[in-house]
């Protein structure tokens, strides 16, 4: 009996061996898939969330894709198994070993991983968006093969605040933030200054109360976002600026529900043009406008500079109104022409430095 | 012998299935597998990463296998890992002890945390006959939300609400000489603890009265009771040890491979432990090698993904399929049993695994 069993096992192994061999035979020709052998290889490691997260990952990836179309680079993104430093470093190592020696990392969560990677892979180049490499002590160390990119979120928030005030003329505004981190706080402070500026100089009266400035504490709690938005709308808020990733999605959903029921409520989107995300009842959208950070343009721009042999290694770049790194969408179907023109004027003033938007809290709420 | 063959067949089946999927999406399986193994084993630092990836799986595999031997399904390894890791992290962030003592206390905290988390379902099973599958899964979610509350509440990171403070380098399981030896890999002391755990558990199962009693309860609870063994005590004890092992896995994961705890994540290693135990035929040595294989698969995915033209989501699917088939060893066991037992009408051995007593 023992023998028969063994024989069966052996035959199974043999059979599977043949199958495996058969698999191998047919596909030796399928190797020449990569287009252009000499193309520069640009890699990206995704942050928490998927590549289609309508936020950091997606916007950055779109920039790389644009570079692929316009500049003929070769691109690849890897999705780490988790969001620890070790897992980020592992995927960076994988990209490096596969010849992707220009690696883009979206988000401040990569700070410590890039800090180690810039030393470990000296002949590779790193771009970190919204963060500074550091060893865990928050003292930035940007080596010659790394460029750190920041955005002037406060200017973007300022423009959104001005636009919201101009469009609504009067009413109440609110703010929902994700985590209380600098990028989100700057959006908030800028927005408050924008509303204030419009009230003082452009004859609007949009109010913003302290109780309507809330940080939820995460970027992924969709349900909580909906609840906070509902409470604000019930308190009489007309427009909410969300800088909160998935939490903002919850707020948008809540606003859409109210919009369908005929209530007049608005959301100001963040990071990318969220107009499409706010659509309901066919072609109406709950998104008044969006305070954008042009991650895609900036990514494309840095890749272009790398190809030109002009990689800004060791630098910490700030993208603001001056270099068009931030702004409102080109098309804002929910803003009147009058608002659009006036916001454009304000944008020019910010650009020229006539209006200074503070990136500090000062006397503002939270 | 038989177990080894069955496991090998399952692995080959898994590789074939994964290869078929690669063919289906237009990639070459030979190339894919070459890169997969290169990614895991190409250089010394990658080997270190692979071993580190396998370490928590050794613990959870052992945890599940140990409970299996007593006829218990411990599905709660994930939750026990979380609590074990949380206790160890709390110790490391709270007490300022010298390194050897601190690590010893962290390990003890992990054992106590994980053990407690499995003791509760074990007690309910023994006392009220509540099925342990249900109660351990429930305990997973209690652990998940406990971490969700405790980490931001007491060990909040500087900016991040979703992560605990980072452990200082000297209060993690990483040691400079290992990191240097493996050229910057994140391999850590956890691996040694895993090897020690394998030896101890093998000893308990095969050489002690306790092990004999536990296996007896697994074979036939009523016969064991009739023979005068304290069945209820053995059930609780088995769960306790199983949970302690999973807790240690948490220590290895959160204070070795990582250096902080993140909220809102149930570690996948908990459920993978079931597959590891099945593939390892519930023997400690088998579990060790099965965990190594899983380590290779998980560790090599990224490189395979970077080298061949497939999206990351599909790369993960390929690995999942290999694992799925690798865990079909039970089916193959049954199949072989059927061939063998066509003449006798004896009932198949009940329980999740063909022959529980066999090592």
UniProtKB/TrEMBL annotation, chain A:
Residue stretches making up the ABC transporter substrate-binding protein PnrA-like domain: 43-360
Entry's localization field: Cell membrane
Principal place of residence: membrane
Protein source organism: Neobacillus niacini
Keyword flag Membrane: yes
Signal peptide: 1-21
Protein name, per record: Basic membrane protein A
PANTHER family the record matches: ABC TRANSPORTER GUANOSINE-BINDING PROTEIN NUPN, TRANSCRIPTIONAL ACTIVATOR PROTEIN MED
From TrEMBL, chain B:
Membrane topology: Multi-pass membrane protein
Cellular component, GO annotation: plasma membrane
Superkingdom of origin organism: Bacteria
Signal peptide residues on this chain, from the entry's feature table: none
Residue stretches spanning the membrane: 7-30, 75-95, 101-120, 132-151, 186-205, 235-255, 287-308, 314-336
InterPro entries reported for this sequence: ABC_transp_permease
Alphabetical keyword list: Cell membrane, Membrane, Sugar transport, Transmembrane, Transmembrane helix, Transport
GO MF annotations in UniProt: transmembrane transporter activity
Subcellular location: Cell membrane
Protein name, UniProt field: Simple sugar transport system permease protein
Origin species: Neobacillus niacini
Organism lineage string: Bacteria, Bacillati, Bacillota, Bacilli, Bacillales
């Amino acid at each position: 009996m023992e023998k028969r069993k063994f024989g069966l096992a052996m035959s199974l192994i043999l059979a599977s061996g043949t199958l495996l061999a058969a698999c191998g035979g047919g596909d030796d020709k399928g190797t020449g898939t990569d287009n252009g052998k000499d193309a520069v290889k640009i890699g990206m490691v995704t942050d928490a969330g998927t590549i289609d997260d309508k936020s950091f990952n997606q916007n950055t990836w779109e920039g790389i894709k644009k570079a692929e179309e316009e500049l003929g680079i070769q691109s690849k993104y890897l999705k780490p198994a988790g969001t620890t430093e070790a897992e980020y470093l592992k995927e960076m190592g994988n990209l490096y070993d596969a010849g992707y020696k220009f690696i883009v990392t979206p988000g401040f969560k990569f700070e410590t991983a890039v800090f180690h990677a810039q030393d470990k892979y000296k002949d590779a180049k790193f771009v970190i968006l919204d963060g500074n490499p550091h060893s865990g002590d928050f003292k930035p160390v940007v080596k010659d093969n790394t460029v750190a990119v920041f955005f002037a979120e406060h200017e973007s928030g300022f423009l959104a605040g001005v636009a919201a005030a101009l469009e609504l003329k009067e009413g109440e505004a609110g703010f929902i933030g994700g985590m209380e981190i600098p990028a989100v706080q700057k959006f908030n402070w800028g927005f408050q200054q924008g509303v204030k500026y419009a009230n003082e100089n452009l004859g609007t009266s949009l109010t913003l109360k302290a109780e309507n400035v809330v940080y939820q504490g995460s970027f992924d709690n969709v349900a909580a976002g909906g609840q906070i938005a509902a409470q604000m709308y019930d308190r009489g808020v007309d427009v909410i600026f969300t800088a909160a990733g998935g939490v903002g999605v919850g707020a948008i959903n809540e606003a859409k529900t109210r919009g369908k029921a005929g209530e007049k409520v608005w959301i100001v989107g963040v990071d990318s043009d969220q107009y499409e995300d706010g659509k309901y009842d066919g072609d109406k959208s709950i998104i008044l406008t969006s305070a954008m950070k042009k991650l895609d343009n900036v990514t494309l721009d840095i890749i272009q500079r790398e190809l030109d042999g002009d990689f800004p290694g060791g630098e910490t770049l700030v993208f603001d109104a001056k270099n068009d790194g931030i702004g409102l969408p080109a098309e804002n179907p929910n803003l009147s022409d009058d608002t659009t023109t006036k916001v454009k004027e304000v944008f020019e003033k910010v650009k020229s430095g006539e209006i200074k938007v503070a990136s500090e809290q000062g006397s503002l709420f939270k | 012998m038989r177990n080894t063959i069955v496991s090998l067949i399952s692995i080959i089946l898994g590789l074939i299935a994964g290869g078929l999927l690669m063919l289906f999406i237009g990639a070459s399986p030979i190339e894919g597998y070459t890169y997969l193994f290169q990614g895991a084993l190409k250089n010394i630092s990658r080997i270190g990463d692979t071993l580190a990836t396998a370490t928590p799986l050794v613990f959870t595999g052992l945890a599940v296998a140990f409970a299996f031997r007593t006829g218990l399904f411990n599905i709660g390894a994930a939750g026990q890992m979380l609590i074990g890791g949380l206790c160890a992290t709390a110790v490391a962030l709270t007490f300022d002890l010298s390194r050897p003592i601190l690590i010893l206390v962290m390990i003890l905290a992990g054992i106590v945390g994980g053990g407690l988390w499995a003791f509760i379902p074990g007690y309910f099973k023994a006392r009220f006959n509540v099925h342990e599958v249900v109660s351990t899964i429930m305990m997973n979610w209690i652990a998940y939300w406990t971490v969700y509350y405790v980490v931001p509440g007491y060990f909040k990171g500087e900016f991040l609400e979703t992560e605990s403070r980072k452990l200082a380098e000297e209060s993690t399981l990483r040691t400079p000489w290992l990191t240097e030896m493996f050229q910057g890999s994140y391999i850590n002391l956890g691996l040694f603890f895993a090897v020690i755990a394998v030896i101890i558990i093998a000893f308990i199962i095969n050489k002690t009265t306790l092990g004999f009693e536990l296996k007896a309860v697994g074979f036939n609870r009523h016969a064991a009771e009739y023979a005068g063994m304290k069945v209820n005590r053995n059930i609780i004890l088995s769960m306790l040890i199983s949970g302690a092992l999973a807790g240690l896995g948490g220590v290895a994961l959160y204070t070795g491979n990582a250096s902080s705890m993140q909220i809102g994540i149930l570690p996948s290693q908990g459920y993978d432990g079931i597959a590891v135990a099945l593939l390892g035929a519930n023997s400690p040595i088998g579990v060790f090698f099965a965990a190594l294989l899983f380590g290779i698969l998980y560790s090599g995915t990224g490189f395979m993904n970077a080298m061949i033209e497939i999206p990351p989501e599909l790369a993960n699917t390929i690995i999942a399929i290999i694992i799925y088939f690798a865990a079909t060893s039970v089916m193959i066991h049954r199949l072989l049993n059927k061939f063998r037992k066509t003449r006798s009408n004896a009932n198949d051995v009940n329980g999740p695994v063909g022959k529980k007593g066999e090592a």
